Amino acid sequence: MKIFTALTTLCLVAAAIPALAQTELNTRPPVGTRPAPGTRATLSIARPSDLSTYRTSTLGIDLGWGGPYGGLGVNYAHLVGPSTDVNVGVGLGFGGKIGIGLRQYLSPRRPLSPYLGLNLSRSGRLDNLTLTLNEDTPSEEKADVRFAPSALLHLRSGLRWQPGRVGLIGTLGYGVRLSSDPATYVTSTGVSPSQRMRDLVDILSPGGIELSIGMSIGLSQ
């Protein structure tokens, strides 16, 4: 009986040794992964682009009406978060435009994402723009219009489709003038411009409805 008990004890001990060894191996880091003496272990931090389908840096080309960078503009955008980019740009319009903006994407992990945006822009000076109504008729009206520089706040929304390095951005927005009416008139008759002339100038003045489409070209990973 004593021999049987001793043999049983030896078998239990023999079975326990490999289990203990395996447990120790599982709790130890693999060879070569231990930090060197005197160094601290660091955690990798995800970049904004790791959590988004968009490239960290993007070049944009915009074409449309009423945009913060004019009717034809270029801009550079940089991701500051997985769903947020900051963009700066310049463009051609009535007197040219320059500005800075922010876009917040609602579904940055998907190729197609809605976005909301804000832009501050400044339009330049434009002198001696001649407008004519009812040309070659007895009621013909001409006016020389000058536009002073203007500051604008653009409220924007749209869709970004980015299936790869090259994508498209469609935008619908509205530009709010932060400064006074930039237009001044010099009419051919010396009288105040008609309401039709004022309506035409208002359409051409900075601000109002934006309808634009742009190309988004990724510059980095």
What does this structure look like?
By secondary structure, the chain is an alpha+beta fold. The chain has one domain: Porin. It contains two helices and eleven strands; from the N terminus they run H-E-E-E-E-E-E-E-E-E-E-H-E. An eight-stranded antiparallel barrel has the order 1-2-3-4-5-8-9-11.
Task: Write a compact overview of the structure shown.
This protein has helices at residues 2-27, 195-204; strands spanning 57-65, 72-81, 84-92, 97-105, 112-123, 126-133, 141-147, 150-161, 166-177, 183-187, 208-218.
List keywords for this structure.
alpha+beta; three-stranded antiparallel sheet; Porin; disordered N terminus; 221 residues
Under the CATH scheme, the architecture is Beta Barrel
What is the CATH T-level topology? Porin
Largest β-sheet summary? 8 strands, antiparallel, barrel
User: What is the end-to-end distance?
Assistant: 74 Å
Please count the beta strands (DSSP E, at least 2 residues each): 11
* Shape estimate: elongated
Give me the strand/helix succession.
HEEEEEEEEEEHE
What count of helical segments does DSSP give? 2
Per DSSP, what share of the residues sits in E-state strands of 2 or more residues? over 45%
Q: What count of structural domains?
A: 1
Work out the helicity level. Answer: 10-25%
Based on helices, strands and strand pairing, what is the structural class?
Answer: alpha+beta
Low-confidence stretches: 1-27, 41-47
Cα Rg: 33 Å
Task: Spell out the blueprint of helices and strands.
Elements: H1 2-27, E1 57-65, E2 72-81, E3 84-92, E4 97-105, E5 112-123, E6 126-133, E7 141-147, E8 150-161, E9 166-177, E10 183-187, H2 195-204, E11 208-218
